[in-house]
Amino acid sequence: MSILSSEIASMIDHSLLLPTLTTPEFEIGCQTAINFQVASVCCMPFHLKRCAEILQNTQVKASTTIGFPQGVQSTKVKLYEAEQVLADGCQELDMVVNPSWVQSGDWDLVRNEIDAIVSISHQAGQKVKVIFENCNLNRLQKIRLCQICSEVNADWVKTSTGFGTSGAKVEDIRLMVQHTPGHIQVKAAGGIRDLDTLLQFRDLGATRIGTSSTEKIMKQVTQFQE
What we know:
Number of strands: 8
Radius of gyration: 16 Å
């Protein structure tokens, strides 16, 4: 099997989401992303403006989170977050669905919120990943979320925040790929710390991977090529 480092790097959202991350650590993380030419840096909203500045004139996109990590903010607050980060240079927004609405079966509320975030982002020419936090959901809830995201033309459906009780799972990737049309991509996140796991999810149909283990994974790619 041939593995191109550029192909692997182009799948990675380099995660810089620890709330205790220092400013120097954040800036080093951005440089790591540039060095490996990954798809994006996913950082906390307060870091986003500086992230966009650092990544300017590179192919690495600046991405951030909306309603993170629990998804319990009001839709109005999530929209304000989206407006602010778009103004700060965000190119990809990773939003968390409201778990109470999902558990309650309040699908109109869920749909309206996702649609609002997708609409404002697409109007600005940017993209949205919708985070399900699958560890809290049953199969039918995951399928319904895939259907809603397809209806409102989200760009990705995403497994996890990385802060739940579990992260990406094989069965969830299979389910999400099965229940989304071709123009909706699937992002796996949470607990992805090595090349083998990334390749497993890629083979199942995931096109983007969220990880803080970028350097380790890219070194494994190099070792594989030797």
